Amino acid sequence: MISVLYVDDEEPLLYLGKTFLEKQSPDFHVDTAKSAQRALEMLGSGHYDVIVSDYQMAGMDGITLLKEVRSRGNTIPFIVFTGRGREEIVIQAINLGADYYLQKGGDPKAQFAELIHQIRQAVAKRRAEEELRESRKRLADIIDFLPDAVFAIDQEGRVIAWNRAIEEMTGISAREMIGKGDREYSIPFYGDRRQILIDFILSPGENIPDHYSLSTREKNVLIAETDQPRPRGERRILFGKASPLYDENGTIVGAIESIRDITDYKWSERRLREALQQISNAEERIRSSISELDRREELLRESEKKYETLFNQAADIIAIIDTEGKILGLNQRFEEESQWDPREVIGKDVFSAGVIAPEFHDLIARYLKDYKEGRAIPAFEIEGIQKSGKRVPYEIRISPLVLNGRVVAIQTILRNLTERRIAEDALRRSESLYQALFENTGTATIVIEEDAIISHANTQFQNLTGYSKEEIEGKMSWTEFVVDEDREWMLNQHRRRRGTSQALTYYEFGLRNRAGEVKRIYLTIDMIPGTKKSIASLLDITNFKNAESIVQRLNKNISLFHDVTIQDISNKVTATQGYLELLDENNKDPSLNELIKSAKSSVGSIDRNIQIARKYGDLGMEAPRWHDLEAAISAHAPRGVRVNTSCHGLAVYADPLLEHVFASLFDNSLRRGGDVTSISIECSKRGHDLVIRYQDNGEGIAEAEKEKIFERGYGRHTGYELFMAREFLAITGISIKELGAPGDGAVFEITVPGGAWRQTQ
Question: What whole-number distance in Å separates Cα of residue 488 and Cα of residue 707?
Fold first, then answer.
């Protein structure tokens, strides 16, 4: 169920709106308020999913109501539904947080169908945003509760992630560490600032220090162990794995390292080695002194007992194999984790026992060959197969078992990677989500470092400036895009924002793009909490600013007609059309059908004249702009009539209503030309001018009417179409006249002066 609060100071429109909305959408419940003040009272005492409000109301208007709702921190979707259609009202409503703007007038069914669509869109968007916030929180929780200690840095070496496990390991909270640079993250482990494993991801050419043992590099992933760290003052043996962080374009944006405390495991391994060494020593002593045989046998038994205890109590799977891959022994962890009975496996080789996925057999055979030839074997990953058939990822580390200086067997330790893989996948999904959100904000968006360099830019910013991301990110300062007159005070805002002074969050400035064009930009900027970075959103308002002067010049002359008369008539027509629709649906007297039909026709005619008046009222309200000529022609091309054009690759500088000129010409052909089946539009150059020749195959226009058709009120329909077409064109010096011969079709010649047209291809 969607709950709607509908606000209007005219009771007929309230009744009509409630009736249509609830009738066409059974899942809508509509409450009405006859004033903005009453709407605020109802909003305070009840729950609504969306507000639909008229603009022009007695006392408090719709824009003031919107401002009051937003000032209370309420983000409920808000739709402005009014007959007042001035551009500045639309801009003001959008700037104050309105979700949609719908102008009254026209067919009530179509109008309320559009309103229903906007209500559903606004409510769905609001609910989706709430679900997105909840999803992002869940993703952050996944990273924070990973079992391994994990932290990440950006390209400048600043910490951008520090999870709970690493907080527990080091005693340093994320709040203390996030945003720190200059290798601050090494201090909890070593007591000073130094390069650690993660730094060699961003500096791949440097040698890894000797205090890292068993260090390996697999493509761009580093794996190493070290016994030097002393987190919380206690010496520990740590296993680390570091890899790059990528954005969605495959660009390295930082590095991430996971750390596992393997002190207990290493001590177990060391004791195991010591036990094996004791076995070897005992054997030597037996050979040298028969008299000490009994004592040495006892030492051997004790050593074997210690080994067996460590062997079977290890947290990871331990397998003893010979150099050919034959399985000699398995600890208890193997049976617990794989569900295989060791008696089913011991004595077989690793290739036929069914415990290793077949695609890893060649890798294991190659490593066994390397091992026998004396080459070191790095840790590597495989997939094991449980008795149920389930595959499990493992990391394998191997070490020799030596007797009398000879390798007699190989000890393999298999660590289950399932939890680590889940954590890594969750981290990658989270990074992809955050990158997608940044890329699809809907406006040009950048991240600015403390030194004013742009570290991240989305596609909209690339399109706005004309520079590629590769040219911008990490190389260009935001000051390079600012016009001279705005640069110094914006730099002052940049410094204030990172200091103790208050800086502006919203303001306008001039941006110069790669082509040298200056755009007027509405900027929203603020700091990223816990960092010296700021994030900025840039909205191009150039067209709005250019249109302001035209709006101010014409507004005085048309405001009375447009704001009062048209508004009042439009509301009455809308209400009348609604009542006629309801009357038609509920009429049971056939004698009234023709009267209702005539009334609908009359009201429809009035409504069309209102639309013409509105259209004429918009004349010159927006600044002229460049139009793709072929697109403007095809925008309203009639169906069922063949339209041929030869105006490809041309642009014309004209009023934004240019396409209505061609709509009027098409309408004239269909209404005056009789049986028109084809229309041709040809473009040619005449001196510096562009000539657009429009011709149909209809009846043509009589000589006496060639000028009258451009007069206001002349013609069979409203009498405004061609009159307005000439006015639209005249704003930028474009002329139109009719040159056809009666009986041979209408011919209109549009002349665009040099400078008001250009070739785009």
Answer: 57
Provide the CA 61 distance to its chain's centre, in angstroms: 35
Lowest mean pLDDT among 209-213, 311-315, 378-382, 695-699: 311-315
Fold equal for 145-261 and 625-759:
no
Q: Are 27 and 124 in contact (CB under 8 A)?
A: no
At residue 615, the pLDDT reads: 58
- Pairing label, strands 100-103, 78-82: parallel
The single-letter DSSP state of residue 195 is -
Candidate from 92-96, 475-479, 544-548 with smallest mean pLDDT: 544-548
Instruction: Count other Cβ atoms within 10 Å, centred on residue 401.
Output: 19
Cα 487 to Cα 472, 478, 479, 484: the distances in Å are 18, 10, 6, 5
CA angle 692-698-704, nearest 5°? 80
3-class secondary-structure state, position 164: helix
CA distance 109 to 115: 10
The confidence score (pLDDT) of residue 560 equals 47
- What pLDDT score does 481 carry? 94
Domain boundaries, the chain: 145-261, 263-313, 316-438, 441-540, 625-759
Residue 654: Cβ within 10 Å count = 25
φ and ψ of 263, to 5 deg: -55, -50
Task: Name the E strands within 149-209.
Answer: 149-154, 159-162
Dihedral pair phi/psi, residue 404, rounded to 5°: 55, 40
* Separation between Cα atoms, residue 359 and residue 613, nearest integer Å: 76
- Cα 662 to chain centroid distance, Å, stands at 38
For 85, 138, 165, 267, 408, the CA distances from 168, given in Å and listed in that order, are: 61, 21, 5, 22, 42
The CATH homologous superfamily for domain 145-261 is: PAS domain (3.30.450.20)
Evaluated on CA atoms 53, 56, 57, 60, the torsion sign reads: positive
Contact assessment for residue 322 and residue 409, using Cβ atoms and an 8 Å cutoff: yes
pTM score, two decimals?
Answer: 0.33
Domain 441-540 has CATH 3.30.110.10: no
DSSP-based three-state secondary structure for 676: coil
Measured CA to CA, the distance from residue 101 to residue 115 in angstroms comes to 9
Q: Could you tell me if 6 and 21 are in contact, meaning their C-beta atoms sit under 8 angstroms apart?
A: yes
Q: State whether CATH 3.30.450.20 applies to domain 316-438.
A: yes
Per-residue pLDDT for 136 more than 60?
Answer: no
| Six-digit token string for 472 | 């911008």
Encoding tokens for residue 309?
A: 């205890």
Helix (H) or strand (E) holding 538: strand 534-540
Phi, psi dihedrals of residue 715, rounded to the nearest 5°: 130, 180
Residue by residue, DSSP assigns 260-271 as: EE-HHHHHHHHH
> Number of C-alpha atoms within 13 angstroms, CB side, residue 199?
15
User: 3.30.565.10, 3.40.50.620, 2.60.40.2470, 2.60.120.260: which CATH number matches 625-759?
Assistant: 3.30.565.10
Q: What is the pLDDT of residues 644-659, one digit of tens each?
A: 999 999 999 888 888 8
DSSP states of 307-357 as a string? HHHHHHH-SSEEEEE-TT-BEEEE-HHHHHHH---HHHHTTSBTTTSS-B-
Integer CA distances (angstroms), 8 to 14, 41, 60, in order: 6, 15, 11
Residue 599 to residue 605: CA distance in whole angstroms: 10
Least confident of 77-91, 155-169, 580-594: 77-91
Q: How far apart are CA 654 and CA 664, in angstroms?
A: 16
Side chain identity at residue 601, one-letter code: S
| Nearest-angstrom CA–CA distance, 709 and 737 | 10
